[in-house]
Amino acid sequence: MNLSEIHFPQTIPELLTLISREKNIQLIGGATTFGYLQPTRYLSFPNTIAITSRIPELHAIHKTERMISYGAACTLSELEHVYPFEHPQSASLLRTVATSAVRNVATIGGHLMYDCSFLSLWPLFACLDAELEFRAASQSHIKNIWYLVDENGRHCAAGNELLARIRIPLLSIDHIYIKRIGGNIFPGGDGAHLVSLTSVDRRSINFFRLVLAGARAFRDFEAEQRIISASHPLSPKIAQTVLHMYAESLRKTNFWNADLILPLIGQVLEDLQR
Amino acid sequence: MNIEFTLNGLQHKVTITSVERAIDVLIKQCGIKSLAAECLDGHCGKCLILLDGKSAYSCIMPAFLLRDRRVETIEHFTKRHEYDLLAAELHRYGSQSCSGYHSAIALMGMMLLQKTKAPQTDEILDALENTHCNCLDPADFVAAVLNAYQKLRTTRKQYESE
Amino acid sequence: MQKNEYIPFDQLEVPGMLYACMIRATAQIGHILAIRPPALPSGYSILTADQLPLRNELKISSVSIPVFASDTVSYEGETVGLIIGPDPLLVEEFASSTAVECDGDSVHRDWRMFPSSRIAARLNLQRGKMPEVSQNDSPLVFNSYVSIEPGEFSFNSGIGALAEWDYDKLKLACPTLWPEHVRSSLASILEASPSDIELLPVLMNDSSEFYFWYPSLLAARAAFAAWTLKRPVKLIVSIKRERQYLPRVQGISLWFKSIWSSKTSRLLGIECRFSIPTGTYSVFADKILRKTAHLAADIVPGLPVSITGFAIRTNAVPMGAIESPASAAIYAMLQAHIAQAARALDRDVFELSQSTLSRMDTSKKAGAPGIAEIPFAKIAKPLLEKTDFMRKYSAYELVHKRNPGGKEALLRAISFSLAYQGASDFLPESARKSEVRLSLDRNLKAHVESDAAFASERLKAALTTLIADNLKIPPAHIFFAMQKSPHPDSVPLMSSSGIAMLGDIVRRASARVQRLRFREGLPISAHAFSSVRAQENSTHVLSKIERPSLGAAIIEVEYDTRSGIFQFIRIHISVNAGKILSPLNAKSAIRAASINAMRSCLVSTSPNAAERNDMYDHILSRSTIAIELLDDEKSTIPRPVGDIVHSLVLSCFLGIMQQLNETNRFILPFRPVSATIAEGAQQ
């Protein structure tokens, strides 16, 4: 049992000073994963804990014509009525993440940065090309969400940086496909989500993403490029080629069970042919 | 460390450490009787509290997150008119929760009745899902909450017009 | 929403109390080499088997279980001692950081394949002669296999024990549904009289399926600790941390064969072999075997039956439950075969199941008291009409026939089943009685002295309503208390016949008080008791199903073939369970049991918390479950329903799996993806 020093910083600079000063520090938003995963009645944290919920900047949601950005400490229920969750399918994905009592407390930053596996909303954010704004003591930089994925497709920690905001470019979503496969999404479970988004502009597909993420994350850039700028509805020939490309890359990356995932990808492509 | 928070309308000052879960502080130091720490993973829902008016599981929450927050448990509502109204409606709709979940379900009902806008079906089901009570028929709960809400609004309107 | 009468166990405290936590041998099993606790501060102590003041052996039925493993650890997580101290968090920390070193014996986990040395009990039920295959009437033979994993109990009322010695009298509080067992088994280990042990009722929530002898073991540990330290001790058990070491509901591995006449479309005989894991100490193993076999054999009287069952000893925590989906497995398989036969013989599924399950016993001579026909039609017909079953069933069958293997993304399936439960139930020999003392005082307050004080809140509410109705007094004037001299053989309250029996005797006692009220002055007291008739020999099948409770169910699902997930589930259940004490309570209980049964078909409750499959929580919590209770005007007593819902839901679920992919292998809980996926992810 380790007693930790608890800090409640009020501003981002204050938090950054803490991060640079303390080596063994844990940022806490809702702490739901800690409470859920730790089996003992008492909770264990590293020597220093910093609570992010007091920093107004980490709570704000801004929307412009082109993009929306959330503070990393926004709770999942705060996101219920904003893009992309006003779409019924992504809204139901959000609802299945956890019950509302967890969603009221759990933060989007904690959800995306959970480093043992990719939790439910991660593939959706990855499809939307979300950008993460990290702050360090001296500078801030913006990274694509795939920055969190290592070469084996696993989640890698972002280092001693603070995830401050998440930015998502606004996009008109014409086709959305979300499918959960497998059991528990926490480590040890074989659960994963397959998310695919398509946007169509004047009978041609101008945006297509297909991401599969659970214990590991998967995406095939080349297959996506093959579909983008193809005409809509998709011709069976292209669909066949793309499916073949996915089959190849799934096999190459040894990603899960291609036999189960390929029919799902096939269904995504079928939807685009209608 | 010492933290202060509002519990059921009263200011509380407690001494906590980083290892304590919120439920232990609420039971041991604040004397709340309606909570139970059974599963410790937010699965059973017997530890439900309202944190700033929204539902939260106190068993998976560290105690330090209570600092400067507003916490309500069912004890805050049991003497209110709304509580009796909801109990009567639940009884009328022919469904009953199991005894372990009475407080959690009543708390969710109270949370919904406090809303300024009439709760939507999805919202009510979401609230009920927090409790994991298998005995109560969700349809009955929705009907009971909506009816109780209607009745409350009508009496309030009458009161205001008088 | 009633106000709870008792304090929940979790919050129970007495002044000067110490907390105790179990030291479990989690790494290895075998001969104990060393127990290494961390450095304990003053005020904290360790209690192991060699410090025990009395015999380290708790007798349950004919099996004895060590209170603390003294020499050998026989299963992973067995308790070797306690850490006791004033702070519950620190006690837990010390207990979980205590290392137990063993010499590492080989661990036997498999219960589907086993050598004969690991058979704890065996059952051989033979009746009649299996029909031989002749050329004239080539019979249809169906073979299938079902495997159900051991599942979790819902320890819904907390778990643990609080013990306090007052000189040589012991006061105990522990959540249990068999209070008499705690007292009598503790009295024998402490060499005391049961009257020296006082058991205080704690709040029992409704869905608790309290493992019926486990509280006795916990109480013994707490009592030993309290005796050694001369202070009250509360043994705390963390359901989350110790989940994988707590008793589980047994699973089953079953091979089943049925033979049908293709000419007369009649069942000619059933044959099956099954094995049940019972963990290290096979408590009540033979009774669990017997119940599993009889639930199916009794409903096809006069037919040749051959059932062989084994209870298998494994190096796991002791298992076994009175009412479990596993014990309904043979019965459910019979129903699945009826559906399969209906398909093969092109017969109506409802008619075939009705004629198979409720036919008269033709082996007896006309005029002799044979087996009355079970009136399934009365309960099933309205249900079939209401749900439009016939039309849906044939429509879905057509889709599946056209599309074998299911190329459609979304498939629908519907299944129907009938079930019964006899009033004579599986109970340990030592538990056959129940009694109630009811008195009405001068202030018109009723005091009920019985085991009912330990019952769940829901049962207590139902009994309160019953007494209030009979005596015409307000429910708030009815109080429950423990009996001062309880019957030594009283039944466990979680078995449904226990509940039915209690309902019956409370009704009789209150009727007697009401009769006396007009003749005698207050106070009046009445005494009623009842006993379950001794079960017949295990090789003998009951000749008559007495006053069965009946049920029919229809389950409709939508199944996504691509992701392997059931998208929505709709359940319709009709039950005729005699007199219903409280319709609200009965409906809620049936609803909860059907969700539990559905969970055991769909949700893997692996002891490892991280692997728990939570994906159906959302779907099940929003599924529609329509329950209808048939009012039986003739009946005066409630009948048990515990097994019915398990049988109905499991039967329907097997039927659905069969309709979806015509399989004959049912591995439950149903996994949405094959195991190879998880392996692939790890590579």
From TrEMBL, chain A:
User: For the FAD-binding PCMH-type domain, which residue ranges apply?
Assistant: 1-173
UniProt keywords, alphabetically: Molybdenum
Pfam families attached to this UniProt entry: FAD_binding_5
Please give the Gene Ontology molecular function terms for this protein: FAD binding; iron ion binding; oxidoreductase activity
PANTHER family named in the record: ALDEHYDE OXIDASE 1-RELATED, XANTHINE DEHYDROGENASE
The molecule here is called: Putative FAD binding domain in molybdopterin dehydrogenase
The organism encoding this protein is uncultured spirochete
